[in-house]
Amino acid sequence: MGKKGSIYISVFLILALLLTACSKNNEPANGGKNENNGTKTENAENPADDGKPATWIADRKIKGLVFMGTDDYTEDMNVEIKQKIKDMTGIELELEIMKADHSIDGLIAGIASGDLPDFITFYLNNSGRPEMSVILKAAREGMFTDLTPLIKETKVFSKYLQDDYLPLDTKYGVMFRPEFNGSSYFIHMNVNREGGATTRKYVGGPFIRKDIADTLKVDPRTIKTSEQLYELAKKIKDGGFKDTNGNAVYPIGPSYWGGKEVGALYPDLSWGASDQRIKPDKDGKWLHEAQTEFAMKRIEFVQKLLKEKLIHPEFFTIDESRATEAALNGTSAIIGDMHNYQEFNNDMHYLPIGPLDNADSPYQMQVDFKSGYSGWAIPSTTKNPEEIVKFADFLASREGKLLWQYGIEGRDYTLDEKGNPKVKQEVLDLKASDPNAAKKLGFAGVGNSFGELLGGTDIDRMADFGEMEFGESVHPEVLAGANGLIEYFDWDGKRKDAKINDGYPPLSFLGEFDRGTELKTALDNYNDSLTRAYYTKNLDEAKKVMDSALKQLQAAGLDDYMKLLEQKNADEKTRVKY
Amino acid sequence: MLTGKLWKRILLHRYLYLMLLPCLLFFIIFSYIPMGGLMLAFKDYKFNLGITGSPWIGFVYFERFFNDYQSMNLIKNTLIISGMKLFLYLPFPIILALMFNEIRGKFFRNVAQSISYLPHFLSWVVVVGLVQRVLAPDTGLLNETIANMGGDGSTYFLMEPDYFYQIMFGSHVWKSIGWDSIIYLAAISGINPDMYEAARMDGASKWREIWHITIPSIMPTILILFILSLGSILSAGFDQLYLLRTPGNMHLSDILDTYIIRVGLQGGQYGYATAVGLMQGLIGFILVVLANRLSRRISDTSVW
């Protein structure tokens, strides 16, 4: 053998060796069984006959395209978690987030491109959300797989086929629409296991700086009307209070998240929920706020606040960074809107005001029977769609949730005698000191909610993990502020008297209304007109603006839509909530 | 044979044609092929059938647009804003170019030019962010100055329709004037210096030089740029207006471009958005052709 021949043989042998080594590395450790850190998982305990774990689905890659904001989800998955999923199910999950100014723009462009991966996910609070008309059009045009036969065989999603499991809107408005004759083309997510259950005890609305309330000797809980709020704002202005930089405070500052209309500031001057503005009057006649006196009453109130400099002049339009800055610096004596889970308020230096009463009734907590948040669908081009459904079912199981909500046993948590996860102190410390580094651990508890996309449903954290919030059972101080405010607000007391709603939000039927597009434009115009009217020089000018907005609403078919709501509400399957 | 001659010429100058090729490809791929998508304006777009497979529906979208109560207001706003940007703005970069031309100190001229170009490189998001901060009620620079001088200092300029045109036009001039003056400056530098020398010998003042030599010499450039810009008369600058829009000024700031984005794209109505876009393009095209003819007849200057 010549010198060249030896070199060829050597190269061949080296390559063969490398390829063999690579292929061994790619095999799941221990033939797919998971004994890592002694995790007590079903798959380890109950291996299937062929040596694969009971949770095994298929050896394949599943790609998902996410049409939702990057703040909530991230494409970067933690390597160990990804491997764990692979070991348990054989699935290699890959996510891509479609970046767009508005998530719906991305969704439309993505579906129109026709080049969709194995599954897509999107926002879908209820059937009235703008995304609904897009996915409905896609479903009608045969873009998605019928999921009904596929979920029959699952453990978690088969509950969706039970009679009383889904809320009305999810059942008849989103998933099993009459026109589909039993078929369903998208799964509505974040449905609670128990009706009327609450996953978080939110206390929302306006909050006042505690030191200011104390100085003025005002119990914020006694503020029940917008007029009392006005008097409080006047006292704040006269008190000459300063923020942390020594500048004068704004008596009523903007929402923590930026400029917007805040219905909770004046529920006694509003008609219906602030994102709907529709409800029936005493005689059962459905009306939009534009058809009532409430808009002008509120405009008069806001103009008074603006003229007397009691409210931030950019309350409705300020950008988020400046609004948050005003909250953190204490520049807002009253923060227009925030909630009790804000970390900056863990010392409770802001306290909730009210809650204020409605125009025609005292305050009553409103709880949705169940409500959705997002959805997913499988394009009709996806091969073996049953594997995606099985994978979603795995992520929605307790075992799957434990993995994507709490991470890896031993590394991120330990299990107590009841089998509930106890979060490790170092994970909580890292989350507090360096949230971005913590997020890289790759599970929902530290800020990466990838699993929620397919598995965030059938929610009952207390039953599954023995705690409402991540890490709360071990380290209750993490939520000391939130829990203190819950007690201060008497959340549990108010929850006892709450009204539990099941039904469709009034604007859910825009998609099936023949002039839905025009009416949607006119409704948007009404909301903009309101803000414009707040800033007009006088009430006469404001009245002209609002009259013009009402005319546009009527030209776009508002009266017919109100009649449609009346019909819908008469049918038990399409009751309207307000 | 003409074709034979043409091929011979192409072969002879093959390297020049080769250099032209990327440019031609660019326009074919990014400008001409996408024009096929214009058929969407006449189709009921279906996700599963694609652009070519979707059924034809004629002029439905055009009818819908003109039946919309907003259409006349949108066209009016678009014409006012683009009219201001075309006609009112036209002298500004020319005057700046003339001023730069008269600066004798080279260093100072370079510095002044660089400063005036810089805003061009900022995106509208940044510029409108600056505008919002400067004009913010109470805390903005302008309002603080007004307050320090004894005024009210709480005017919310961006919410008041009375100030909308000034803010829109002012920010447009600030952002564009430096960059747009470059081409006029280049045209000015191409003027034969002998003409100025002759004028000076005849006793012409600086003003006379500008009026009788500089402006006539750059007039063809002014006309060509003006004709070309007529093509975008129905596009009044989407990003600036989308960002400056507030509920207070929306009845003045809603233009066709913002409408296309809001109703067409955000609402998923591609066909409708394409129809309105096509209308903008066609009207622009007709105006360019007409203005070009007029210019050729009056001044012998034309784009083609």
From TrEMBL, chain A:
Region feature Disordered, mapped onto this chain: 26-54
Residue ranges with Low complexity bias: 29-46
InterPro entries per the UniProt record, alphabetical: Bact_solute-bd_prot1 (IPR050490), SBP (IPR006059)
The organism's place on the tree of life at top rank: Bacteria
Keywords from the UniProt entry: Signal
Pfam families (alphabetical): SBP_bac_1
Signal peptide annotation: 1-23
Record SUPFAM superfamilies: Periplasmic binding protein-like II (SSF53850)
Name recorded for this polypeptide: Extracellular solute-binding protein
Origin species: Paenibacillus spongiae
Automatic annotation (TrEMBL), chain B:
Keyword Signal: no
Main localisation: membrane
Pfam families, A to Z: BPD_transp_1
Membrane topology of this protein: Multi-pass membrane protein
Keyword Manganese annotated: no
SUPFAM superfamilies: MetI-like (SSF161098)
PANTHER family: BLL4140 PROTEIN
Protein name: ABC transporter permease subunit
